[in-house]
Amino acid sequence: MMHGPISILPLVLDHIGYSAGGNAIIRDLSLELRARACTVILGPNGAGKSVLLRLCHGLLQPTEGEIRWSGAQPEKHQAMVFQRPVMLRRSALANIRYALKRAGVPRAERLKRALDALCAVGLEKLADRPARVLSGGEQQRVALARAWALRPDVLFLDEPTSSLDPAATRAIEEIITAIRDSGTKVIMTTHDLGQARRLADDVVFLHCGRLIEHTEAATFFERPVSSEAATYLRGELLV
Amino acid sequence: MLTGAGLGDISAAFGAALGMLAALDPRLLQIIGLSLEVSLSAVAIATLVGLPAGALLALTRFPGRAGVVALLNSLMGLPPVVVGLVVYLALSRAGPLGTLGLLFTPAAMVIAQTILIAPIVAALARQVIEDAWREYEEQLRSLRAHLADSVWTLIWDTRFSLVTVVLAGLGRAAAEVGAVMIVGGNIDGVTRVMTTTIALETSKGDLPLALGLGIVLIAIVVLLNVAAYVIKETAQRRYG
User: Fold this and answer.
1) Does domain B7-239 have CATH number 3.30.43.10?
2) Is B144 left (phi over 0), alpha (psi -120 to 50) or beta?
3) Which tens digit of pLDDT belongs to each residue from A62-105?
4) Beta-carbon contacts below 8 Å between A and B
5) Which residues between 73 and 92 in chain A have a beta carbon less than 8 angstroms from any beta carbon of chain B?
6) pLDDT band with cut points at 50, 70 and 90 for residue B2
7) Mean pLDDT of all residues in A106-124
8) Could you tell me the domains of chain A?
């Protein structure tokens, strides 16, 4: 499932802010994310990681500033997988076909693309099983297949393995790597530092809704620029 | 009259009732058949209207929505006699729909029961679908499902719970007496249904027929509830 050359990236966040109920959750955040590679958003709980992801994906609207994509109709070229997979009450395969239908993929193509996506996550044998009775790890793989089948330029992942055991987590991480290698830009949050080390090409570090640093992964984990990131990486509480 | 009927009379009536049921008494069957026809028609129409309306209300946000939800919930408790009276006035010869000539026909009974049940189906469906929407909203918005897509997706995904909703409506329709009595007129062989017959025969003192119908009515209600429970449990085990 290689990806076409035209992309909606880079994604530019121009001094965006987001407040809800009088609380500023994201403050004056500017950032540019380029095509390819896996960007991991890190930060302590409550830093605004999930909100930032939802702002980028358009599920929330920034209350200040502007979010700019490059191509036309950017909303058609992105997908998101949530912390807890939302499976529709139908088969695993039908879940993927549903997404393809919503995306306007011609009927004749949907079955093959859905099957390919299930194969890509190693679940072709469970194609006809009701999705909601699959295990948590399997459901998350179906959710990834459903997003991948859309062949997005950008895939947002919100804590995709937070409720999974190590074996399921490894399976998910392998799929994420394959998706990145196919040319889809992955932007994800995690609070698992080991996972960030394994997957990240660059790291966006947030604290209290502010961007503290945006650094290449190798640099971030070896010599973080900010004292906040250094504190966080030492495993100390950042307040 | 029932006053003065002893325990022996009642047990005799009970035996006679079972006899009528066992013999498939044609009078009994005609009354049961009309009851089911009227109530099932009303439920079918109320479902066609109520499910989409409830789903739409669950998914949309507009000023005054809380008031609409509260109003809908209170319409669940509409007194059947009042609904009957309003439909009676509308269908009576001098009423706005008098020219249709529907008063004292099964059609009038279907109209009255539909008005009675549609709010029940809509209000209960609204609750069920709104709970599901909380889980699905971000995912469906991420997949760029339109409002109509989302409404249909949620109705389909909550279908096992909605069966219970529809059966609750059917139970209410089959058991009510006030509305069908007023707009149907309880005409023998034309608009006489189980509940109106029970009321009439009891006041006349003909206990066997009243009791026989009572047994059937309770059996239907119990059967509906058992069916709703079994469908929901089986489906949830199979489909999660």
Assistant:
1) no
2) left
3) 999 999 999 889 999 999 999 999 999 999 999 999 999 999 99
4) 47
5) 75-76, 79-80, 82, 86-90
6) very low
7) 96
8) 11-87+152-233 (3.40.50.300)
Q: Domain residue spans in chain B?
A: 7-239
Count of beta carbons in the 10 Å neighbourhood of residue A167? 9
Q: pTM for this one?
A: 0.88
CB B193 within 8 A of CB B38: yes
AA letter at A132: R
CA distance B130 to B5: 52
For residue A132, which residues of chain B lie inside 8 Å, CB to CB?
239-240
State the complex-level ipTM: 0.93
Write the DSSP string, A180-223: HHTT-EEEEE-S-HHHHHHH-SEEEEEETTEEEEEEEHHHHHHS
Residue A12, beta-bridge partner list: A32, A68
Rounded Cα distance, A107 and A95, in Å:
14
How many CB atoms neighbour CB B229 within 10 A? 12
